Amino acid sequence: MRLGRASHDTAEPGTAAAPTGGGRRDFKRRAIAIVLVIVALVLLYFAGAAYIPRWWSHRIGSACNGAFSTGMLLGICFGIVFTILPLGLLWFTMRRPMRWKTRIVWLILAVILAAPNLMTLGVAVGTGGGAHAGQRTMDVQAPGFRGATAVGCLIAALIFVVLVIAFRRKGRPPKVPKRPKTPAPEPVDV
What we know:
It is a single chain. The chain is built from six helices and no strands. The protein has about 190 residues and is mainly α. The protein has one domain (about 25-170). This is Permease. Keywords: Membrane, Transmembrane, Transmembrane helix.
């Protein structure tokens, strides 16, 4: 038994243990844990904002090797593949009934699949030093990649919308054409 704290284990049968004030301690621990997680996420964001655009631009630059045609082809392929896969996964996730924990796992997987496009977007529209360095690197080593990725994303979004519309129409029963109304014959005077 600890001194200064009432224990539920040592209370006599039939008597209630005195409140311990543990609720306040649990709240303090949770608050400290939440603050530490938020601080860690902010630090990770700033570290990622400085490092990821540079790293990504060098990877794409190495793949393109300064060739405009390779940059365009890779950009369109990345844009289409890494847009249509996450959109399809999100559509699948939102249409199916599932537990929220399972849904969160699927949503995280969709973000991971979209990561190449998100990193390219970070380079293209970022305002930090890492994004500007990534823009300069892509301008020289991967010309056309950023614009082609945007075009690929638009193509993928259009393909996805067409597929969703086709899928929804496929599930509906076919429409029966209405018969045209024929006017009733007029009575004949005899």
